[in-house]
Amino acid sequence: MIRHCIALVVCVLSLSQVFRGLPTSWPHERSDISPDPEITWATLPNGLRYALRPNAEPPGRISLRFLVHLGSLYEQLNSNTGGPIFSLAPRVMTGGDTRFGVPNYSILYSRTLEELREWVEPAFRHGPIEVSIVGDADFQTATEAISNTIGALPTREDCDHREADLVAIPRAEKNTSVSSIDAKLGQVGVAYYWPMHEIEDMRKERRFSLFFGGRASSKIVSASECARSLAPLIL
To answer: Which residue range is the domain that position 116 belongs to?
Structure first.
């Protein structure tokens, strides 16, 4: 939700939406658009999927893509008082330039090998991995090459849709930030940031926003008579 709102504010003329399928589905399986009939979609015995499309032009050239969906380690580091807005806003304002909107050097260079392993290993064990080959190669040769290399890897664990689709809520820090305002206003604003990076679908974000917004309103407003002037906002 925060990502969407920032994009609307700073990039009004550039609006996009990413559609993500289930971890073990091909993109066209959840779309009304039929896939290219020249592409062969298949799965190796060890669970790895691959796509083949013969293409003789330009001759003698092949493009191979090994795609692992790891997500962003940077976004997982945003469970701080300021929330993800401080790292996301600079990147959105620079048109998605990855040189902007990353944590500072002290945070980046304090990462450990064990932390990196915990981030990468699940994706290789049971996360979505795709192999795509495009170029001047026949189906039989490409299939044998994939089977003898990537296909020789150990059998991958089954991907549990329920487990893969669960929302992981990071632990929020206890640090607080206080900004003073004119006391004559007689008002107080409280913001509690709790990033939920696994929710990347905008419609799911809105549902969670409405749900938690309703719960916050009922809990806060019913707590005391003076709280009836509060207007909880969940983003």
So the answer is: 2-168
Half-sphere exposure of 146 (CA within 13 A, CB side): 25
Establish how many alpha carbons lie within 13 A of residue 82's alpha carbon, considering only the half-sphere containing its beta carbon: 10
For residue 147, tell me if it sits in a domain.
Answer: yes
85-93 helix and 2-10 helix, angle to the nearest 10 degrees: 30
Residue 75 is predicted with a pLDDT of 58
Q: What is the pTM of this model?
A: 0.38
d(C-alpha 223, C-alpha 30), whole Å: 45
For the stretch 126-175, pLDDT in tens is 776 777 777 777 777 877 887 788 777 666 666 544 444 444 555 555 66
d(C-alpha 218, C-alpha 215), whole Å: 5
Asked whether residue 102 is domain-assigned, the answer is yes
Q: Is 188 helix (H, G, I), strand (E, B) or coil?
A: coil
> What's the gap between Cα 218 and its chain centre?
31
DSSP per-residue codes, 95-145: TT-TTSS---HHHHTT--HHHHHHHHHHHHHHS-EEEEEEES--HHHHHHH
Kindly state whether residue 39 falls inside one of the protein's structural domains. Answer: yes
Give residue-wise pLDDT tens across range 61-83.
Answer: 877 777 777 766 665 555 554 55
Residue 145 falls inside a structural domain:
yes
Q: Are 44 and 130 in contact (CB under 8 A)?
A: no
